[in-house]
Design goal:
The chain has 401 residues and is α+β, with helices and mostly antiparallel strands. 15% of the residues lie in helices and 56% in strands. The chain is elongated. The two termini are 69 Å apart.
């Protein structure tokens, strides 16, 4: 068929010379004898650079088939967590990438059938909002040659450097994990002499053990007040709480406590409760925990009365790091008696702590306790102002990989 076509073409050439016809015949035979190459899209990706261009063009065109060809079956985008091949392709097809992008500062190193490329990739559309934007990433890709084609096996992407060359362009800040063990103790002492001799001594300690899955906290506080060598009042409180994290924001917990508060006429109070806690997302220097729980209380009073009642408790705990080393905290609790609405209570505490050294701090606090139905002969409201030295020990936790 090829020779018949050559014969027709030569027969119609305007030049009658044999030399011209012979040369034309040779050229046409050479062209027609060259086999036609099949259109293999992978064969177009003859180098890592053209493969990168083809990958970006496939993203703009939302070409699933081309993406499937260019990505290796075990492709992964490294991150925390890693992005799988399926998720990456789904994002490429469903998010907004516009119709324009730039590859700059391209570098490639090849070693046999392995190539590592690095470059700056710029898109001009926000993929989530689909609004105009300039998004630039520093990409590092690992390509593997399989047959005549290159396939992308791994990618790592991060923000492009500002060009300053400092550490900020090489590292990202990782939030420091809470300490695995946190032990703190405080001591306060007030004494007067002269016409009246008084002494007030306060001791307290808190031990916290925290893991990614659970937090256990045990605390004890003791306060005694003497006047002229006679003990006027004394209080003791112990509290244990164990919480289990069920999600990033929610915990469930159980708590038990004992209190003896002669200042308020309480000879002994035992409480057991269970509930849930929620921690909303706040700016870095603030923390907020809200709690709700149901429980049961047994209370013995100095006037020989005994109360037994079910409770519902709501609590809000807020912390604010004013500057590094200075923390402000405030806690508010409301306890409702589910059997007698009039027997409700409320507590609150505002404290500020200033670090003096890594293990020593100065703390001042104002606490209040209000009982709507106080013990006979006692007032509804108690206020306590304390200044104390706090000694602490913290064993840091391990940063998650």
């Amino acid at each position: 068929m090829q020779r018949s076509l050559v014969t027709v073409i030569i027969a119609n050439l305007p030049s009658p010379t044999v030399a011209v016809r012979t040369a034309a015949a040779a050229a046409l035979l050479l062209l027609l004898s060259t086999p036609t190459r099949a259109q293999d899209p992978l064969a177009d990706a003859a180098s890592p650079r053209t493969s990168e261009d083809a990958l970006v063009e496939a993203v703009h065109a939302r070409d699933r088939n081309r993406l499937e060809q260019l990505l290796a079956s075990d492709y992964v985008l490294r991150g925390k967590p890693d992005i799988s091949r399926k998720t990456w392709i789904d994002n490429a097809l469903t998010l907004c990438w516009g119709n324009r992008s730039d590859i700059d500062a391209f570098r490639v190193r090849e070693q046999g059938d392995l190539a590592v490329t690095s470059f700056e990739l710029t898109f001009y559309v926000d993929p989530v909002s689909c609004r105009p934007a300039v998004l630039r990433s520093l990409i590092t890709d690992v390509w593997i040659r399989r047959g005549a084609a290159w396939q992308l096996a791994m990618r790592q992407s991060g923000p492009a450097s500002s060009g300053a060359g400092d550490l900020a362009s090489q590292f990202g800040a990782v939030p420091q994990p809470p300490p695995l063990w946190d032990v703190s103790s405080d001591l306060s002492l007030t004494a007067t002499g002269g016409n009246t001799s008084t002494r007030t001594l306060g001791l307290g300690s808190v031990v916290t053990h925290q893991t990614p899955a659970a937090t256990t906290r045990v605390s004890i506080a003791f306060l005694t007040s003497d006047a002229d060598a006679v003990t006027r009042a004394r209080s003791l409180s112990m509290d244990a709480r164990h919480g289990i994290r069920i999600s990033e924001r929610f915990d469930v917990f159980g708590r038990g406590s004992f209190a003896r508060d002669r200042f308020a006429g309480i000879d002994g109070r035992v409480t057991a409760e269970a509930g849930t806690a929620y921690t909303p997302a706040l700016p870095a220097r603030h923390t907020l925990i809200t709690e709700g729980s149901l429980g049961y209380t047994l209370e013995q009073r100095v006037d020989a009365t005994e109360l037994r009642f079910a409770t519902a408790t709501g609590a809000v705990r807020h912390g604010w790091t004013i500057v590094p080393g200075t923390q402000l905290s405030d806690d508010v609790n409301f306890i409702a008696d589910l059997q007698s609405a009039a027997n409700w209570r409320g507590t609150g505490r505002l404290a500020i702590a200033v670090s003096l050294t890594q293990s020593l701090a100065l703390k001042a606090s104002q606490g209040l306790e209000y009982r709507n139905q106080p013990v006979a002969g006692f007032r509804r409201l108690d206020l306590r102002t304390v200044a104390a030295l706090v000694f602490s020990f913290k064993r840091p936790g391990r940063i998650a990989p």
